[in-house]
Amino acid sequence: MVTPMVRAERLRRAWPCELLLSSLVVVGLSAIGCSATSEVLANGDDWSRSYVLPYDRVWRAVVWSLSSTGYIIDEEDREQGRIRAESAADPAYRAVVLDVRIDQRGEVVRVALQASGGTVNSPGEIGLLDRAVTEFLDELDRALGP
């Protein structure tokens, strides 16, 4: 049997967790219905990759990876190293747009991404853009792997 003292001690210990959880819920709910946008940071974050491979091979792998992950290329400028693609999402307001920049410096070809769109409808979907970018980059890594 749980005594009143034990019950009070359990509540005292649980209170900080409940406060943290309620704060996260408030933050998550404030994002509902908002369109999210994220950008690549210049310090080499997870939204970019660098390869020591020929530019043409990386370009072809980017185009292939976009297609294989369900994106439709809207704009493509090989000379400028830019591709803009949109996911074929249903419903359309959940579509994610990836802006891909491919840049060569010496022997290194860098692929950097910006993601936008993907309206968030629940706290569980807040990471939609991160998941979309990660899925694409994982596919690109497989395409360019050993």
Question: Can I get a quick summary?
Answer:
With 146 residues, the chain is an alpha+beta fold. 40% of the residues lie in helices and 27% in strands.
Helix/strand-derived category reads alpha+beta
Largest sheet: 6 strands, antiparallel
Mean pLDDT: 73
Q: Report the radius of gyration as a whole number of Å.
A: 21 Å
Compute the number of helices: 3
The count of β-strands is 6
Q: Unreliable stretches, pLDDT < 50, 5 or more residues?
A: 14-44
Distance between the termini: 62 Å
Judging from the principal axes of the Cα atoms, what is the shape? Answer: globular
Element order: H for helix, E for strand: HEEHEEEEH
Instruction: Give the strand content.
Output: 25-35%
Helix content, binned percent:
25-40%
List keywords for this structure.
146 residues; alpha+beta; 6 strands; 40% helix
Structure description:
The chain contains 3 helices and 6 strands; from the N terminus they run αββαββββα. It has helices at residues 4-30, 55-68, 128-144, and strands at residues 36-38, 48-51, 71-77, 82-87, 96-105, 108-117. Strands 1, 2, 3, 4, 5 and 6 form a 6-stranded antiparallel β-sheet that branches. The protein is globular and about 45 Å long.
